[in-house]
Task: structure prediction
Amino acid sequence: MTKRRISTPSPTSQADLSRRKFLGTSGLALGGLALGPALLAACSSDSSGGDASSGDNELWFDNWTLYIDKPEGELYGKGGTLASFEEASGQKIKYTEGINDNNEYFAKIQPLLSQDKPIGPDIIALTFWMAGRLTTLGWVEKLPLDKIPNSANLIESLTKPPSDPTGEYSLPWQAGMAGIAYNKSVTGRALNSVDDLFDPAFKGKIGMLLEMRDTIGLIAMSLGIDLATPTFEKFQPAFDKLKEGVDSGQIRQFTGNDYVDDLEQGSFAACIGWSGDVVQLSASNPDIGFSIPESGGTLWFDTMQIPVGASNVEGAAEWMNYVYDPVNAAKITAEVQYISPVQGVQEELRKMGGDAAALADSQLIFPDASTLATLQSWGNLDEEEEALFDAEFAKITGA
Amino acid sequence: MNEVLLGEEGTPGHGAAVAGTADVVIRLENVVKKFGEYTAVESADFDIAEGEFFSMLGPSGCGKTTTLRMIAGFEQPTAGRILLDGVDVSNTPPHKRNVNTVFQNYALFPHMSVFDNVAFGLRNAKVPEAEVTKRVTDLLEIVRLPEYAKRRPNQLSGGQQQRIALARALVNLPKALLLDEPLGALDLKLRQAMQLELKRIQREVGITFIFVTHDQEEALTMSDRIAVMTQGRTDQIGTPTQIYHQPTTAFVAGFIGTANLLPVTVRSHEGTTVTVDSRSGSQFRVPSGGRSHQPGSDVTLMIRPERLVPSFAPVDGVAGGSIPTTVTSLVFQGPVVRCEVQTDMGSALVAHLGPEDDPGRLSVGSRVDMTWAYEGAYLVPEAIDPEAAGITQSN
Amino acid sequence: MAADTSSDDRGLRKGKWAPYGLLSPGILWLVLFFLVPVMILVRTALSSKASRFANPEFSWQFSNFTSAFTDYGPQFARSFLFAGIATVSAILIGYPLAYWIATQGGRWKNLLIGLVVVPFFTSYLIRTIAWTSLLKDDGVILNVIHAIPFVPQDFRLLATPAGVIGGLTYNFLSFMILPIYVSLEKIDFRLTEAAADLYGTPWQAFKKVVLPLSMPGVFAGSLLVFIPAAGDYLNNRYLGSPKTSMIGTVVQDKFLVQFDYPVAAALSLVLMAIITTMVLIYSKFLGTEGLAV
Result:
């Protein structure tokens, strides 16, 4: 889901602060004392921009950074799919990159949606579990599926996920996998099991993700716990194992997308990482490897949802239908290099030739059936269970 | 250090003899100070005796403060030596010199009480606290501010700060107290009061004072001896009387008080009397002032304003000379009338006329011969530019 | 005389409200962006939530505060310890630098002070992340340290308390340098001449005159470093580990991940209260009010 531009040399340049990098760093300006009051102030005011789109019935899509094909360097520039959509449909589209972090975005929209006020955007792209939360809370509109015939093109396993069993409230945007990322120059070997992360030889050199579902998910799977019907009680052993790793000093740090830097610099021998990042990283650094552990990896995806009070549901449907056309979807995949939810993209990429065609053969973009069989997605966590998970995870990460 | 260099009285350089056989506390030997290309002090070369009130007087930029700072140790001489009690201290840092300074801005420590300010030097010198208390208290008595011990400097008036600065330096019983224009920041009345106060304190403690000032009146009032400095040179060292009545340079003559200076040429020198020719062709007889004057040499005739009187007024003593002039201004100044006149050669002169001189008979534009007594004139052994002739006075 | 007085009085009465008028933007600002948020904070800290995503309801829920005290002792302790060490380090690094610029800077003073500030044109986040590459296990600094005999092979700076403290020190250093520089700049250095003249060695002159006179700057700098450092979480996030987490980490997580606004608010208030108390003790101890010259 993160589009790291390998051509960008500095790991810290502004443009490179991709979507995942912001996990856990949101609210940057809010240091110390200011943290509480400022956040509360933010919570109690309309900070998401109001319903600016209603006037000329423009369609507003709020997405993560660097998550679509559009002219390089133009933050709000329209090229690629955005431009061709406008041309094809006559529907004006406003595209913003307002999502840095699921929880932060939730904190921003929660005060409005809980009072049935519109938040502005017509489409938002939160990750499946957060999408599930919005669905449960009744804060998203039912999708006009009859106006999205191309949804028939979607990969079946990504429709009607546990977070949206009827498939009426969310449709996938892009998907990816969490697995084990490692730096062979430090480990000296390829890793393919979660237990390798707990190998004392790598003490103090192991990273974990702050994204609870990926970290706990992988460990749970290695302990034979399945993710489809999660309960806190069932997952306790996974938390115990993680806690032990932290207490013993085995685990060095919990990170967001910045694990990429730590991995490349050798501060991490291995860590839990996301497929898309590692595809791009290994292209420039052959020591970097990625594997789906024997016990299985997690499959996640970001969704498109229509928040309640959205003013342009028609246009939203039109957009969804447009990007589920394999020809259009392939153009996005060629750019963002994540798993496309649309069938037929692989063939379209081959047709495009060149670099795009090479992507068609990547297991990490087009996992075959045997790989897919090892992947699991998280089932829905109800409110209380999720609170327990988050609290326990926070305790272990030091928060 | 009993050795005293004796030289011709009232001349610069080694003539700067200390009166009598008093001990020399500070000796400057051909001290030079340069800042890069700029020479601040060309040559300072004099002795200062124990218990003396010694002033360095001159306009700003004359090198007096630099000389003082070299004595204090804030600057090192570029050449020459500074001896303190016979010991070469030229390169000794200030905190190892037993001299103390009263700074122009007082430089009192704003974060300390008056008591702590005064005790500062003693405590640095590790004097036992009981003695510190006693000496600080004594000094606050001497400067007459005993009840201010607990105050902060910013709660004191300028004059009080001045006394504290003085106490802070004196409490250490230095070999010499250096005062850098200490009265400059005070208003006239307070300044005059402090002049007397300083003099009293100096008598009371008996410490050598080296006093830097640009105010000639202040120097004349307080000093035992004065070094008049200009452009890095010491023009003359002498008692206030010598400096006033027997200036050795035209600069000194003009800087100390007001002087009428006229360029003249020596015609002859017989006994104690010198005959000179003025530019207008008149001849005057002038006392030689103990010097010998070569006939034909250009010198300067000095007449103080109080010695110049109109020809109709009685002259005190033997007549010395007379110049025809035109009155250009008359200003009543209380005890005297300031009368400015112009000679036929165009030089402006000034006379201070008392009631006995009957100034009521004069009016602007009236012709009058200005005369002076024989001993009222003095020959400065230095030529001046005729352009610069006439009234000269400092400030 | 009487007429004079009355006209003075009139003038006084006329201008009576002018100062308040001039102050009003400031007061308004304070009320709007300090007082109101703090009151919301207090209200939230005493609220409870019906369910996880419900809005907090005011209910005199004092247990939020007990939770703040009982569960997060280590994080509070680390916050104040790390911030304290960072403050002292910033003084030790910043004071000599400010002193050198103020006394030796000459005509380069403004340029040098500018250079002190220049790194801070970069975002705080970027600077902190840049430190991870600087301190990385296989980086230049670590390689030099490892070249020293008897340094254990697994010695590292990232993910250690030293890393976090280093980051805090670095990130807030200019907040120490600037006020110290300003207070040094104000000192009349003829006072050091006076101290030397009064038998003070250069060290004594510094200790007894310059240092006390620059204490307002040290005081201001300490507050400007300590307060944000105590509430910081980014340095721990990038340079620390789960074992070096600070109270800011908890508050951030409570707010943004766990949606536990009441406890987060209570934690913020406790942090605020402790800092305020410490500042009061510190100012009493330093007694800066008498230093105003």
Chain B is about 20% helix and 35% strand. Residues 250-393 of chain B form a domain with the OB fold (Dihydrolipoamide Acetyltransferase, E2P) fold (CATH 2.40.50.100). The longest helix of chain B spans residues 188-205.
